[in-house]
Specification:
This protein is an all-alpha fold and 268 residues long.
């Protein structure tokens, strides 16, 4: 009579996956440069909006939106960062090695998303803080004084707007990650993400029906994300700030779900 000893089934703990993905992220030059670009473009983007003037208490120009105008540029860099986090693995063929080392594909995707979130969140916070500081230095000279509603980012409303801006940039990076997992081609995914972002506001601008334009602003991730950064005229917006952020979160969740399904049902 012989006894057969079976080897224990291999385990792929999340901690190992996180360590592997973090090692890849920090040893590649691209992500660092992209995150630096996100900060720089978001802060410098305020210069394009510095032509805004507020000469009365009823000018109705949202100073927070002016301060965070650079997010129009920064979101493109956040999108590219999210796309390349997975797209580079497919373009170099490293994806086969990654999935061989981590056969549990959902664990791998979760680790990838987690590792992406932390540095993008930090870069977005730095970018928004820099934009707020630049706005504080520039906008008072353009009439955005306390008497005219200048936002110093010290009130609860202003802090909420800054928080919304940070979370919006982070969600855009994760949305791009999910689409990259589904599409598997960096160039095509970048085009798709930018199309998703800019299609809805462009369509809303050209349609003749105000009701339809409002609905497009309610479902598009870019206009919804901008609503999350508003500090004045909130009641007249298509969505409340937190509803706007919720719409972006739903887009992100849908993209990640699509990417997860693609990983499960298709070969590497």
């Amino acid at each position: 009579m012989s006894l057969t000893v079976r080897a224990p089934a291999p385990r792929y703990p999340l901690g190992h996956a996180l360590h592997a993905e973090w090692t890849k992220f920090r040893t590649m030059a691209g992500p660092s440069w992209l995150l630096a670009g996100l900060v720089t473009l978001t802060v410098v983007g305020l210069a394009a909006a510095s032509a805004a003037r507020c000469q009365s208490a009823t000018c109705r120009i949202d100073p927070a939106m002016v301060s965070f105008a650079g997010i129009y540029l920064g979101q493109a860099v956040a999108a590219v960062t999210g796309v390349l986090a997975i797209g580079n693995e497919y373009s170099t063929g490293m994806i086969k090695l990654s999935l061989t080392a981590m056969p549990r594909r959902l664990t791998w995707l979760f680790a990838k998303a987690t590792v992406l979130t932390a540095p993008v969140l930090a870069a977005a916070a730095l970018a928004v803080a820099g934009s707020a500081l630049a706005g504080r230095l520039i906008l008072p000279g353009h009439g955005f004084t306390p008497a005219h509603g200048y936002a110093s980012l010290t009130s609860a409303t202003d802090i909420r707007a800054a928080t919304g801006a940070v979370l919006y940039l982070t969600l855009i990076a994760l949305l791009s990650l999910g689409l990259a997992a589904a599409v598997r081609d960096s160039a095509a995914t970048i085009g798709l993400v930018l199309g998703v972002l800019y299609l809805f506001p462009l369509a809303a601008a050209i349609v003749s029906s105000p009701a339809l334009a409002r609905h497009l602003d309610q479902i598009g991730p870019l206009p919804a994300g901008l609503d999350a950064q508003a500090t004045i005229g909130v009641n007249s917006l298509p969505l409340t700030p937190w509803q706007g952020l919720g719409v972006v979160a739903l887009w992100t969740a849908a993209a990640l779900l699509l990417g997860a399904l693609a990983l499960i049902i298709r070969d590497a």
